[in-house]
Amino acid sequence: MSDFCLQDAEFGPQSRCRSFDFTLVFENAILSMLPDTITLFISLFYLVTSSTWRTTDRVFLRVISCLLPLMSVVTLVAWSSSSPDVPATAKSYVTAALSLTILPSIIHALMLNLASLDSVTFFISFYLSVTVLLDTSRVRTFVTMGSGTTSEFFVAAFITLFSARVLTLIVLNIPAYTKSTAKATESSGFFSSIFLLWLYPLLWKGRKGNLEANDLSDFDQKSFDLYSRFELSWKSEKSKHPAKPQLFRALFQAFVPVFLSPIIPAVLMSLTQAAQPAMVNAAIRFIESYSSGLEPEPAEWGWALAGMFGFIFLTLTGASTLYWYSIARTSAYIRGSMSEAIYRKTLVLDVTCLTNVPGGNPMNLISSDIDRITTVIDPLHQMWSALITIALGLYLIYSELGNAFVATIIITIAIMLFTPYLSRDIRPLQTKLSGLADKRIRLISGILRQIRAIKLSAYETELIKKVSEVRKAELLARKKFWHKFYRVVCMTSVTMNALSLVTLSTYSIIAYLSHGESLTTAKLFTAYTAIGIITNPLYTIGQNYPRVSAAYACVKRIEKYLLSPETGSVQDASACSSDDDNSLLKGDDVITQAVVVDSSEKTGHITTSGCVEMDRASVGWNEKVVLKELTTRIQSNKLTMIIGRVASGKTTFLQSLLEETKVFCGTISYPWPRGSIAYCAQIPWLQTSVSIRNNILFASPFDEEWYAQVLRVCALDTDLANMRDGDATVASGLSGGQRARIALARAVYARKSVVVLDDVFAALDGPTAISIFEGLFAPGKGVLLGRTVILATNKVAHLRYADWIIAMDNASIAKQGTYYDLQGLSAVIESEQESEPAKAASGSGKKTTAIKAEDLPSSSGSIARRAYMHYARAAGWRHMAVYALLLLLTVGIQTITPIYLQIWSTFNDQHASDVKSLSVYLPGYAGVEVAYTIALCYLFYYMIIVVSQRASYNLHEWQFSAVIQAPMQFFDSTQVGQVINRFSQDISYIDGGLPLALYDFLYQFVRAFGGMIIMIVSLPYMALVIFVVMIVFYLVQGFYLATSKRVRRLDLASKSPLYTLYQETMELNGLMTIRAASAEEHFLAQSEVLLASSQKPFYFTRLVAAWLSSTIGLMTAVVNTSVVILAVATRRSASAGLFAAAMSQAISLQDMLNLMLTCWTRLEMTAVSLERNLEHCNLEPEDDAEDANLQEPGEAWPTRGEIEAIDVIAKYRVTPILKGISFHVEAGKSLGICGRSGSGKSTVLLALLRALKLEGTIKIDGQDIMNISRKRLRKAITNVGQEPFVLDGTLRENLDITGARSDEEIWAAVESAQLKPAVSALEGTLDHQMQSISPSLSQGQIQLLAIARALLADKKIILLDEATANLDEETDSLVQEAIRSAFKDRTRITIAHRIQTIQDYDQVLVLKQGVVDECGDPMKLMEKEGSVFRDLALASAA
């Protein structure tokens, strides 16, 4: 007999003749024909409009796709031939549905075989997902009816068609295994997309932790494209709101679709979460119906509930995955656009801003602030979506508890209003904290950039103390920030407790007084689940509001930076009085005049026409006039030389020609457009991370013939021939002369129409300087002849070659004219008597490697464990033990809460309106909640205030101490950007992200463990399910962790070369060199490549975390569905109360596991920073390897200062630089060392300081220095090197680093060093704030500062390596006299190119290619025919 009836011919939808089924008309019209029709139209539209066709290489997919139309036809034939016993109308609908199915099947088979997979796979997969879900009902109907109604052939054919669809769906969602994830992404099906299954090839490859950057596909949006979209929006924002443009508004307008993309998934997440209490209520009532003596509900309803649980949790998981995918893309958009914007801003930043950058250090903005902003995209969306969830949760509470929900509303509103009040001070505290972090990073960056000079002076201990003080101030500010954060988090963390206690108490009292229904199991746990749904959003708001507020402060910092002043080719000039030194007029006295630029000639021409005209121009920096009343004409295509004493304004004059200074009054007109200048700074600027060739080529194309000529002219051909890698050698570890010549070669090679040279011959010995000068300027053959050349110099012997000379004095032009016009000028007369090139501070010892990603450590679990042990040791084992006990106590109290509620609800089920419920159970419940509140708040306080603060201080202290005391070889082989990255971004993670991630992970881990125990106790069969899930979980975490940690390492490592480029660009001389040559595009291209490389791991780090969230969601869907299935299967013996307790834990399990693994992800990300910190902390100190042989001398050593060197061989790496030299300096005597560039002069001093590998013997006061620690040795010697270092801090701190000298002693040293006028002119004098990146003093004045520092040190031995190189002759003479007077009884060793500075020494040592060429009394050597020393002296005077 047929189970079909006449009602099957009606729409229905519910069938009255079959239990729990639809009518045939409804199933075929709505569940089959409707989706098929929609799909057919979309597919036809695609076929008509598509222009991309190709054949897929997935053979099995081609075969299985052809099976669908075949089985559709077979099924239709089977139906038509089966003579089904159904109403005619229903039969026609089935026939029509089966016929219509054939057309989409045929079209989809064509699309899968011929169309581009990346555009059709998702669509077809989505269609099959829908049809498989809907056809489940039809399969059930036909199978239930059996062959008696239709035929066995039709049933088999229909099931085969259904199976073919399922199989095709599976195949479409299996990602192809390729080396790159690009193809896997293109062929992603519906489930593959929403559950990120296409990442499996990447995870499989990364399971052994050997994933490389090339294995990651490029992010599909280039940083330039992202920046272009942002720039349009930012310009629009500034034009609409010129007074107060908002960066956040501009960002939102630029990327509206991306910012809004998480909305739909977030809404779906809220809806599915809100449906959970209703599902729990229905399930509890279903179980109760079998134990309450009432009529049991149909078993089909129970199984349907299990299916609904599965669907709800799968939907929640899919929505959650898509949400995290959207968050990852949004974060990458923001990072790409903001990094590009900040770097582009840096390239046009007014150089005066480098000393006090508005908004903060750009390195910190890029490394920390942008990262902090990207991490709050999720919290930002969670906060608004929380409001939806809260509203739905309140409605569910109202539906269960009636008027008692008013108490819930009051508490909810109070928490939501009080949270912003408690958070009101977080933003300013974050701004202050960021400022202090900037200060610390600037200080450390300055130290690292000048580390060689600092270590050779043995100032490690003092600088560790100084950095420690800055760090303490930063952590004090962080502690204040944590206190505010703690209040907000604690209030929202106990929301569940407060809401549950108030809501359930209110209902219990009302029910007792009104004799209403008491808190039954169904009512209590439904309300408890709904309260839990409200709690998570409130907790989210509480935890995220401070983070969003702090991130907003970062947005404002970046906004301020992007609005900071820019340099430009047109500046404003304000009229000023010639007798006003400061030239700061206000009000009506200000007249604006524009700097005129004659752009008739194009950049790149060898010659220009016209001249630079300065008419009473006053120029300077910020609001301070440095040069005043400049009136001159600089002719094009001529050689103009600038001379003057120290701090007379030569460098500022040249920078005015670069249009970098501010014109306060008067006019300056230029005959060339900006960007047509080759500039070579006084301190040679090189990119020490790239090769010598790339430094010389800079932004110019390679011209082999011209390149070879430039190398010859700049005397580099011989140097490069002696280098193993030639011009492919990385530009680090070079001598001062080599650095100067490479920088000069870059300026010459550029073939710019204008060449500006700032004292470029100062670093060269006499013969080399003469050779290069002639190659550049000799009549008839000089390569710079015919160009506009402006040369500032102290070697005024070259003045006779000048077409025009400008003499600077007292911040203005003292005199100008031809060489013959100025022959009576004192500076020229002195120079003719004693002229010698000086040597620029070159930093010859600095060594870094080429720009490349860091070498990554292995991904082994042992490293991670060591990292966590490292953190525990930093926090203190006692503190960690106390925290563990507090954690167990807190989670224990929380775990017993649902058990207590189950006992209470069971009592209420059996004793309606019993006073005991109100007098005993309610106070007991209140006690549990209060105890939990106190325990939780103290647990959080202990973590962030006690544990994290102590750990943060120790980790930074250990790391910096280890780095600054590391061997020189470490700095030779490590980029400064890499080390700075570890003190900026890594420490930022350790300070802020790690404590919260560790707290959340440990708490949720223990809580999840407790929840599983409750589920097993409630439903023993769940032990098997949980066991299987835990095995899967273990496999997944092992599968995930290796890839996640590796991608995270790639993320951090890929940032180092990017930060190195930024660091090099942000140097003052680098920035001016780049802008003068209009090379910004060249550096932007490098930045875009490096940024694109770092975007890949940044993006995939977040995608891998989203995959984990998806996988955990699938596992919790299995757990929740299993709980219901087991309850339905054992419905006749199951306890409703225990089932309710189990469901309360199962429902929250996904949140617990998701939060736990989200925190785990964050923890693993920060653990990489911990590993990197541990790696630095384990650096071997410079002297550790030799401790056993060291015999430290007494504190008074050396008492005399006698030095003896015997057969000394010194090596930088392998090749000896010094080849067996010997000399002897008696105590209190002086030794001068001279020789050509590269002869090994500076190496002698490095050997005395044990900065190289040594063979032979060096004794000081008879004691072998190899038996003395480097730190003790260097403490005994005053070293004034080629590159005097400047620290971020006051001038007093720079002069007296030990802090042991009085102001009187400091002023005396300043006066002796001829620095008093300059110091007196500084704001704050000795308390003037100095910055290493852009000091307030000229390079010559910085050398005087180093001399004053040496005078204050007052040690028995002093080493001077071209200590007065940047001084004019007169100042040098005065300083030399001060040195002779102050160190008359000290042992002095001086390296000099100015031979006259050592002519009165006791002896001189002439070096040639690492051997002693000549040694003796300088006066006697001057009288000796054929003396090498005499030849050098004569050459230097030429």
Automatic annotation (TrEMBL):
It is a multi-pass membrane protein. SMART domains: AAA (SM00382). Residues 247-550, 881-1165 form the ABC transmembrane type-1 domain. Its main location: membrane. Keywords: ATP-binding, Glycoprotein, Hydrolase, Membrane, Nucleotide-binding, Repeat, Transmembrane, Transmembrane helix, Transport. The lineage of its organism: Eukaryota, Fungi, Dikarya, Basidiomycota, Agaricomycotina. This is P-loop containing nucleoside triphosphate hydrolase protein. The chain crosses the membrane at residues 29-47, 59-79, 106-133, 153-175, 247-271, 301-325, 380-398, 404-422, 488-513, 525-542, 880-901, 921-944, 1012-1036, 1104-1129. GO terms for cellular component: membrane. InterPro entries: AAA+_ATPase (IPR003593), ABC1_TM_dom (IPR011527), ABC1_TM_sf (IPR036640), ABC_transporter-like_ATP-bd (IPR003439), ABC_transporter-like_CS (IPR017871), ABC_transporter_C-like (IPR050173), ABCC_6TM_D1 (IPR044746), ABCC_6TM_D2 (IPR044726). It is found in: Membrane. GO terms for molecular function: ABC-type transporter activity; ATP binding; ATP hydrolysis activity. Residues 612-835, 1203-1434 form the ABC transporter domain. PANTHER family: ABC TRANSPORTER ATNG, ATP-BINDING CASSETTE SUB-FAMILY C.
